[in-house]
## 1
Amino acid sequence: MTWRLRVHHMTRYEYTGTVTTSYNEARMTPLSVPGQTTIDARLEIRPAVRAFRYWDYWGTMVHAFDIHQPHDELTVTATAVVETSAPAPCTDVTSWEVLATEEQRDRWCEMLNPSWYVPVDLALLEQAANVRSSVVANPLETAVAASGFVHDHMIYQKGSTTVATSAPEAFAAGSGVCQDFAHVLLGILRAMGIPCRYVSGYLYPYPDDEGGLGQVYTGQSHAWVEAWVGDWLALDPTQGGFVGPQHVMVARGRDYADVTPLKGIFTGSPVERLKVNVELTRIA
């Protein structure tokens, strides 16, 4: 069964005065990957400029643009229509022995090594050992158990963390938002030797038997994790389950630093206000 979702994501920076120049990158266009097809996607920038498109190292569509005219506001609006379906089940499950080989550790080194938001941490290492010792199973079942642990251990609480909070900090606090849940799970999986990556996108929160066609959900960006267990397994520790057709993927990387929706540098007056609005509509 497939879903068709319309995504509207607006980000607006309002400055205290005039900004003379800015250099920006937007990662706001949903990907076309197995289980997801982007039917239509547009990016509107105000002040109006032409963006240069390219695929980054991690396979994400990036719109890069410069603004060289004075402005006191920057608005970037991404709209898309995406068709999604449930991911295919993992049938080719690897073993711990294979993951431990030099060949596999070299192949997945970027998804195993520490990253900006997921440094080496003793508490995460200890928790990884606890999860693995309590689940005598293959990497797939252990990854699912680790996701379940994060869901049960962490409390979803807006304002308890910031966009700069690392996995060890969020784990110690025991609370955070989807970004923190994903980073904590990455830290545990990497400590166990399971390659994994951060995924950013959107979540339409109503399952198939709820939320009728045409219903608009106003929310925010979402994050989850993909673990390599012989194939990529998509896990959502915030929701406490697997990724399904209600998820829309935009970007993948080592952690949030690789997938930031909009980032850049500018010259001029500081930011006074940031507004972000995300709307998802199921249209089929």
## 2
Amino acid sequence: MRSYIAAVGLVTVSLRKSINRALVDLARHYGFQPRACRPYRPKTKGRVERPFRYIREDFFLGGVFRNLDDLNGQLRHWLDTVANPRVHAMTHRVVNEAFAEEKAALQALPSAPYRAVLHLERRASHEGMVSVGGNLYSVPDTTRRRVFDVHVLADEIRIFEGSVLVASHAPLEGRGQKRLDPAHRKLASFGRRRPGSAEPVTLTRAGDHAVRRSLDFYAAVGRRLAAQEIV
């Protein structure tokens, strides 16, 4: 996919007022210039989208893949034996031969891969947590806004207050879990914290774990409640 985008060098997109910020970042990384097609004229971008339909219908539909490596292996075989040796219906040229002629004029791919980001807007709960993918992640007590911009990467959850990064978490697997960074909470709200407890804490659903206390603690609670009943 990266090679195809770089080879095209020019992407036509249906836009009315402005270009999506994520597309601008992608274009800047790979060095191509987005160009808007005419409004209400989807046919003006048909040539750009047609290859994706061809790949979907000729390769993906009806295919069975064990995992990502198996999918990539089958795709490589399909490209080498079906897609690239064929004569293109529009240019009437063999795809491999046409690409060999144009390859020298292509730009080199960037040395670093593009870190795709999913941009979300999330409102923090009263407990100072934002929900991403069915899990909760903490934001600092010192933040002033209730709505945050969240950038989801493969290996990191970044939470921004305006343009300022206020929290960063490793993504949680599954759903219904919480990741709480002790540094996000004021000392008073955490009570007594043990030294060296600055690592983020992962909490499961409410009711899964209970705080362990000594029997003396519960005996003292019972005596206090009994004294209140007597009064």
